[in-house]
Specification:
Helices cover about 25% and strands about 20% of the residues. It is an alpha+beta fold. This is Small CPxCG-related zinc finger protein.
């Protein structure tokens, strides 16, 4: 099992797959993706933050920065792999 922090909300989310899942038979789904934006920038975002990106144009690094400014970091609640509660 692997995890990575969302570049916007900073929540640690699950990345499915890999050798760890093979041995512990974890079948949960991935909770985020690395996006390569049209301006060449790359960000790992959880699905909740991804949905908050603008949908009227192709998102850019500036859109991610704006979203980060409007988003308070999610406080850890002991549930390391779920952004939604």
């Amino acid at each position: 099992m692997a995890s990575e922090a969302c570049d916007v909300c900073e929540r640690s989310v699950r990345i499915a797959g890999g050798i760890g899942d093979l041995w512990n038979f974890a079948f949960e789904s991935t909770q985020g993706l690395t996006l390569e934006l049209t301006d060449g920038s790359e960000f790992f975002l959880c699905f909740d933050c991804m949905e908050r990106l603008p949908d009227d144009h192709e998102p850019t690094a500036e859109d991610v920065a704006d979203l980060r400014e409007r988003t308070d970091p999610v406080e850890e609640d002991g549930n390391h792999f779920w952004h939604w509660g």
